[in-house]
From TrEMBL:
Protein name according to UniProt: Amidase domain-containing protein
Domain Amidase: 25-103
InterPro entries xref list: Amidase, Amidase_dom, AS_sf
Entries under Pfam families matching the protein: Amidase
GO molecular function: catalytic activity
Amino acid sequence: MNELHQLTIHEAHELLKQRKISSVELARSALKRIAEVEDKIHACVTIIEDSALRQAEEADKHISSGDIAPLTGIPTLVKDVICTQGIRTTCGSKMLENFIPPY
């Protein structure tokens, strides 16, 4: 099998549905890959590993109960132009470099 971060969304979904991999494994793979390349590509302004892993654990609970929508358990990045309550959101601007939205 490819590295988990190389799976397509469809491939990852099928493996999650079949319980051959877990959401936590996918999240850890994505976080590991981000750590490997972030210094070169500068794609992520804020990385919240603990939240990603908590959400992956929740997704695994849903999946184990048979509740799996197409994106359940799939790691996702949120572009830094979307307000994320309590998480630094800069919109790529020096003026907003320390902005933490209340909503």
